[in-house]
Specification:
With 259 residues, the protein is α+β, with helices and mostly antiparallel strands. The chain has two domains: 142 residues, no CATH class; 110 residues, no CATH class. The protein contains 14 helices and four strands. Strands 2-1-3-4 form a four-stranded antiparallel sheet. Helix 10 crosses helix 13. The chain is globular, with a radius of gyration of 22 Å. The chain starts with a strand and ends in a 7-residue tail after the last helix.
Length: 259
């Protein structure tokens, strides 16, 4: 289930981007009345965040997209994949999106498609229960490094609309990331890294080399929920300097009665 990819499409994209005739869109619109819509309000905080994620990222590809479930869980702060699955169901039943879940069977891209999915967990179970022993074997043999690359590749495609190159070097880098951060955190950090606004990462188009080099730094940013860019570092330094100046002034202005 961790390797499943959800392909989604907003049912009423023109509502969020009425611009017609464009090959690609760079913006989306949310009406001020959206938050007053009872159906939208019933989605709850996670559902509303996921819907906004679909609207904003959908602007890159005319209201549709494909994301690793693992990435959606990380981006929208779901407590579990089961909770994400329930939210996708709710969005589908509320007529906001259509979606298909596809399960990666191997690194070559073989997939089993399931249309009109209403429960991701049951899809995985039904696939295995039909006697796909080969599928179960391949899935069980998938390495932690492969899971990291899948998370990275899904995020990379979402940003650049291109699949990243996979070779012996990238496989080794993914394995190094697992050793540095652990199998549980590494896929989340890899997906998070691709959206990092750091100017150096952006100039290098978020190559894996720099993620591995700064693995602990990026992991800390992911857990803290804040990117450390050059501008933010300067702001922190200036604030720290200002606090030091104030402390020195207060210390030097103490009178005899303060001793």
């Amino acid at each position: 289930m961790r390797g499943d990819i959800v392909h989604w499409k907003l049912k009423n994209w023109a509502k969020y981007n009425p611009k017609t005739g464009a090959k690609s869109s760079s913006w989306a619109r949310v009406n001020s009345d959206t938050w007053l819509d009872p159906t939208f309000a019933q989605l709850g905080p996670s559902g509303r965040l996921l819907m906004l994620y679909f609207i904003t990222t959908g602007a890159r590809r005319n209201g549709s997209g494909a994301d690793l479930l693992l990435r959606l869980r990380s981006e929208c702060s779901f407590r579990s994949l089961a909770a994400l699955s329930q939210c996708l169901d709710h969005l589908h039943e509320s007529n906001f999106i259509e979606y298909i879940v596809k399960k990666n069977l191997n690194d070559g891209g073989t997939k089993i498609a399931n249309t009109n999915v209403t429960n991701v967990t049951n899809v995985t179970k039904r696939t295995l229960d039909r006697g796909c022993k080969k599928t179960a074997k391949i899935t069980s043999e998938k390495t932690d490094g492969s899971k990291v690359f899948e998370a990275y590749a899904s995020a990379y495609f979402g940003r650049y609309n291109q699949q990243p190159v996979r070779n012996a070097k990238t496989n080794a880098l993914c394995s190094q990331l697992v050793k540095r951060l652990g199998a549980e955190d590494a896929p989340f950090v890899a997906a998070y890294y691709v959206d990092h606004p750091g100017s150096f990462y952006v100039r290098s188009m978020h190559q894996l080399d720099w993620l591995v080099k700064d693995a602990e730094k990026v992991c800390t940013e992911w857990k803290a929920g804040a990117h450390m860019t050059g501008i933010r570092a300067n702001q922190i330094e200036e604030r720290s300097h200002g606090q030091s100046v104030i402390q020195n002034i207060l210390k030097n202005t103490k009178g005899p009665s303060d001793e």
